[in-house]
Amino acid sequence: MIDMAEARPLARAPNSPVRKAPRPSRSIAPQVIDIGVQVTVVAVIAGIWEFGARFGALNPFLLPPLSVVLERLWEDVLAGTALVDVGLTLYRALVGFVIAAIIGIPAGILMARSAVVRWFLDPLVSIGFPMPKIAFLPIFVLWFDIYDTSKIIMVAFSCFFPIVSATYAGTASLDKWPIWSARSFGAKERELLWEVYLPMAMPQIITGLQVALPVGMITTIVTEMLMGGRGVGGAMIMAGRFADSVGVFSGIVQIIILGFLVVKAVELLRRRILAWHPETRR
């Protein structure tokens, strides 16, 4: 038997200093090195592009100098055309993405919780996920119009499948013990949904959203190229018809900047939403 006197903590001497537990040091050196490597790679590629086109190593018509492309982009920004094109592309992509999220997240949760819904939707998702969604664009044009409606629906259709698949995978793989514990304390189905299912599956759901958003951006630009009109894709295809290589590469730079900002915004949103999750604390 353990002696209770021995189990008590030893009394601290009156003048002995209090030892505090060491705090883990958070070094920012790896982050700085990572950012430095990324900036270096981008700078090297930009330098090869600029000097290769300037000194004749690359055909300046097929690949105009980066400085000329940035100058055109700046002129388009001052004229307002670039802002209108980027705004229209971003509007179509985000609206279609939001529609897909509103439909896909509940559908994925229902697939994981209801055998009837899973029996109905699983074959459709299995067939539609690997299918090239852009093949449905002529159908959407016939059903709707040649303006924003068909483009937005095309984006929503493309984003739906990664969202519903990630939501279903995240909800179906949940640990059963927290669910059983909540039910044993009298939690209702609605309380289980909002306080157990969604928080536990949220990392996987957000991963599906992070996959779907770039898909939506790509789909938006491709539909604009195929259907014409205003937008980054439409401006690029119009510049290509007039052999304006500088305009084409200006659109590519716009896509790079827009995609980078959107991806970083989603990463920031993920950290905010999952502030309680261990992945954010790490």
Automatic annotation (TrEMBL):
The chain crosses the membrane at residues 28-49, 90-112, 124-146, 152-171, 192-222, 242-263. It is a multi-pass membrane protein. SUPFAM superfamilies: MetI-like (SSF161098). It comes from Ancylobacter mangrovi. Residues 1-24 are annotated as: Disordered. This is ABC transporter permease. The lineage of its organism: Bacteria, Pseudomonadati, Pseudomonadota, Alphaproteobacteria, Hyphomicrobiales. Signal peptide: none annotated. Belongs to the binding-protein-dependent transport system permease family.
